[in-house]
Design a protein that fits this description.
heterodimer, A: 569 residues, alpha/beta, Spore Coat Polysaccharide Biosynthesis Protein SpsA, Chain A, five-stranded mixed sheet, 22 helices, B: nine-stranded mixed sheet, two-stranded antiparallel sheet, 9 helices
Chain lengths: 569, 337
């Protein structure tokens, strides 16, 4: 047995006692006295086994057992009893480190002793005033100290909540003992003999104990509060690395966290998964060579924990899958990435798709929602994510189709054509989607009709139908609730000065290449289109969405800059 | 009011299912009963199999490695050595039955009985022989770690969508021998062509899509196979699976998905249906008509599989491990770090 050191460990154990025994042995064999408290609810057989396992070590003690139910006084009572044994039996001990049975040393205990020897009067205990904590369970900070909690939060939640609300309503408040300023913090501390004995042997101990016995989760507040009364050298942080998830449950460390734990440079971590053989094998050795040995720096690994919480709470925007299926308005982004929808552009310009793809470097599809086929770019039959070009599959669940496409092509902007001949199922969805950039040349659907070789009566009926469909689309896009970036021009406005709108759209798609458009797409020849519209009028149909096309006066790219695009919201 | 009525109806439905399960327990004859060896914390795996001698060796191996302690298997009258193989395994308890698969609601009455009888209080994994569970960190953390964490989160169930795996080239052309990892042959999957809805009144997700929808059901997508499953549940003898492991009662166990934008934890069942044996088997299954409630509607599907198709396409993605599947958004670690 090596000589007793200035550092002693108090361990609170309730499960996986064989692992706790391994850790206790590790510390004890390196000269640190260990006082073990085993939860009174643990069966006698397990307790005796643990005692037998450590029987050969002279500097290990077992303290009086209390039932340690979560959030109750038992944990504090256990800590007090074990600490008293430590102070009484091991007079050389100057710092007492409170650990749990699922703690594990990450650095050689010599490192820790050296660290504490350099700070012989410092108490390491997280101790924060109630106004400044943001992490408390159940949202109770100050009320932990002023209300009564006879019901269990875990097993009698309804009674717990109801009783808390009742007390709030009738304005009940417990009296806080004089001089006590409530502080909260991590349960795992490292206190000096002077401080610890001042708390445990102070004249008002009974008063404080009686008060804290009825405080909720006193293990997070008893020492954290009282230390402020007796110590002048509190370093408000825990030497134990302990991270909590979004529910306030401690993260568990597994074998694959080995590098992460090393990087933290912390002295002790919890909770360790009892079956993490590799961790126990690695860290319960004296192999100090691989350790960096700087100041503990849990901040280095904080980002990972923050990301895990974010994944759980916010999820990946635009992803709809088996365990993420947000209700309406809870999507946190309807789709995964920005995309552009073009109404009427491929009718007004020849080769618009090729031009757009070249100019913006994005993926330009045809009419993705065409009735007879999904017109993927390049005429592909299967697209990213293994999306099929079958219109039936698409129409069976159109929202999945679009969100899947945008999800599966993250990193590459998608553009597609749309019009009144397509399936209109997603109009509302796209209008509500802030990732959608929707540019509309209204009435452009008339151009293919004009060029078609169909009977005029048929054309008239079709024109009336398409106009109705597009009017509905436009009214959806013009709703107040629209979040998409919507621009709408009539055909007449657009052909008068097409470059400015095109420039705006292209700039928005690829903002980095802020350059003037040099090559414009070739506009289709509109000679005779005004007459066509007049013919429709003569037949009793009123084409309105194209804007003003006087019969016979064919539009020419004019100099006037009238008809600027307008941005809805 | 409607919701209360639904809840009441579902409660009776669950009781009816359990009643059926109890009634049909007589169809099961114990071949090897090692259920006395089950320890309180053991993770159990339940399966109904028929002629799966090719898949079972790797199936058992994979799930043993993940930490399944005991397998409870019903052999539905196999004649390819399945029963002999299973009886020889030290951790398998085996029952035999000649009764009809369809009449037992696709084996579910038997499963529900075994679950109620032996699964109470355990984490239970209910699988078919062509399914292999994967979940986040499954290469470094076993099922004990996963289930302990789920317990800590207060989640009594774990959803896992079926992911159809397929080879590159015609199915029949791929060589596979019993005991090998099937996903070295079937190493491709569809990454993002799944569609989801929520089905009422049970509130279970309904997922369809994947290569079967893409190739076999492009003209009748509503008939494409259901992919959602809840295979891993901390069982209670009052629970009952309703429709394969696609849905379960009481309904709260179906809601393993988050609706507030967050991601709940989930895994996947890699589906090895499309091994070379599937081609020969399609004809047989079509003849038996034991696999769908209206088998005639699926004749074309069986014919298409029997014709030895190639499910691979240029957009198929290669399986490289759980991280790839998680990044593709097919499953989620849901806050587990």
């Amino acid at each position: 047995m090596t000589q007793s050191t200035t550092l002693g460990f108090v361990m609170l154990c309730h499960t996986a006692l064989h692992r706790a025994a391994e850790v206790a042995r590790h510390w004890a064999e390196r000269g640190c006295p260990v006082v073990i408290h085993v939860d009174a609810r643990v069966k006698a057989w397990s307790y005796d086994t643990m005692k037998a396992e450590l029987a050969d070590l002279g500097n290990v003690r077992f303290s009086e057992r209390f039932a340690c139910e979560w959030g109750t006084w038992g944990i504090v009572a256990a800590t007090q009893a074990a600490s008293e044994v430590m102070l009484a039996d091991f007079p050389a001990v100057r710092h007492v480190y409170l650990a749990s049975g699922s703690c594990m040393p990450l650095r050689p205990v010599r490192d820790l002793i050296t660290y504490l020897d350099a700070r012989p009067r410092t108490d390491f205990i997280e101790s924060v005033t109630t106004e400044e904590v943001g992490w408390t369970i159940g949202g109770l900070n100050m009320e932990r100290f002023t209300l009564r909690f006879p019901f269990s939060w875990r097993t009698q939640r309804w009674l717990f909540d109801t009783y808390v609300n009742l007390q709030r309503r009738v304005g009940f408040r417990r009296k806080i003992p004089k001089d006590v300023v409530p502080h909260l913090g991590s349960q795992w501390w490292c206190l000096t003999r002077q401080t610890l004995s001042a708390i445990l042997q102070g004249p008002d101990r009974k008063l404080y104990d009686d008060y804290f016995r009825r405080v909720w989760i006193p293990d997070e507040s008893y020492f954290q509060t009282l230390v402020r009364l007796v110590s002048s050298n509190v370093e408000s942080r825990s030497l134990t690395l302990s991270k909590f998830d979004f529910q306030g449950k401690p993260h568990i460390f597994y074998d694959d966290h080995l590098q992460l734990l090393r990087r933290s440079d912390c002295f002790v971590a919890r909770k360790i998964w009892p079956h993490a053989n590799k961790l126990y094998r690695t860290f319960l050795t004296d192999d100090a060579a691989q350790q960096a040995g700087g100041e503990p720096n849990p901040g280095k690994i904080d980002r990972l924990f923050a990301k895990a919480v974010e994944r759980r709470v916010k999820g990946r925007p635009g992803l709809y899958m088996q365990s993420r299926f947000p209700n309406v308005d809870f999507e946190n982004g309807l789709t995964a990435a920005p995309y552009s929808v073009f109404h009427g552009f491929s009718e007004v310009f020849e080769n618009f798709e090729m031009w757009l793809s070249k100019t913006t470097g994005s993926r330009v599809h045809g009419h993705l929602f065409a009735p007879d086929r999904v017109e993927f770019a390049g005429g592909e039959a299967v697209y990213n994510g293994a999306l099929s070009d079958s219109p039936k599959l698409r129409d069976y669940n159109p929202r999945s189709f679009l969100t899947n496409l945008i999800w599966a092509t993250r990193g590459e902007r998608q553009c597609f054509q749309f019009g009144p001949t397509d399936s209109q199922a997603l109009n509302e969805f796209m209008a509500k989607d802030s990732n959608a950039q929707i540019s509309v040349i209204s009435g452009a659907w008339a151009l293919p009709l004009w060029r078609s070789n169909r009977n005029f009566g048929e054309i008239r009926r079709e024109a009336a139908r398409l106009q109705k469909v597009e009017s509905e689309t436009l009214s959806v896009l013009r709703q107040v609730s629209t979040k998409a970036r919507v621009r709408i021009w009539t055909l007449a406005e657009f052909v008068e000065s097409p470059m400015e709108p095109l420039q705006t759209i292209v700039d928005e798609i690829s903002p980095r290449s802020l350059r003037r458009l040099t090559e414009a797409p070739k506009m289709t020849d509109l000679t005779g289109f005004g007459q066509f519209l007049q013919n429709l009028r003569n037949q009793g149909m009123q084409p309105v969405l194209m804007g003003d096309f006087p019969a016979g006066d064919d539009p020419r790219p004019a100099s006037a800059s009238r008809g600027r695009p307008y941005l809805v919201k | 009011m409607g919701r209360l009525l639904d809840a009441y109806r579902l409660r009776w439905k669950r009781r009816r299912l359990l009643g059926r399960a109890i009634a049909r327990r007589r169809e099961l004859v114990a071949v090897v009963d090692r259920t006395k060896d089950i320890l309180p914390d053991d993770i159990l795996c339940f399966a109904v199999v028929r002629n799966e001698a090719v898949r079972l060796p790797w199936f058992l191996e994979h799930h043993r490695k993940l930490g399944v302690a005991r397998f409870l298997v019903v052999d539905n009258d196999s004649d390819d050595g399945t029963a002999e193989f299973l009886a020889a395994q030290p951790d398998v308890s085996l029952w035999h039955t000649r009764a009809g698969y369809k009449a037992s609601r696709f084996g579910l009455d038997w499963t529900n009985w075994l679950l109620a009888r032996y699964g109470h209080g355990h984490w239970c994994l209910t699988l078919d022989a062509d399914e292999a569970l994967v979940y986040p960190y499954c290469d470094t953390r076993d099922l004990r770690a996963l289930t302990a964490w789920l317990d800590g989160q207060g989640r009594g169930m774990f959803g896992a969508m079926m992911l159809d795996m397929y080879p590159k080239g015609p199915l029949g052309a791929q060589d596979y021998r019993a005991g090998e990892d099937p996903f070295r042959v079937l190493e491709w999957f569809d990454a993002a062509n799944y569609g989801m809805r929520v089905q009422q009144p049970m509130g279970n997700p309904w997922l369809q899509g994947g290569p079967r929808a893409r190739v076999f059901f492009a003209d009748a997508p509503e008939r494409a196979p259901t992919l959602n499953k809840v295979p891993l549940v901390r069982w209670n003898r009052r629970y009952a699976y309703v429709n394969s492991t696609h849905s379960i009662l009481p309904p709260r166990l179906n809601r393993f998905y988050e609706t507030d934008g967050g991601e709940a934890p989930s895994g996947l069942l890699l589906h090895s249906k499309f091994l070379n044996v599937a081609v020969a088997r399609a004809g047989e299954e079509k003849m038996r008509g034991e696999h769908f409630s209206n088998p005639a509607l699926y004749d074309r599907y069986y014919e298409a599989v029997a014709a030895d198709p190639d499910l691979w396409c240029s957009a198929s993605r290669r399986f490289t491990g759980w991280r790839g599947l998680e990044a593709a958004g097919l499953m989620s670690r849901g806050g587990w770090l």
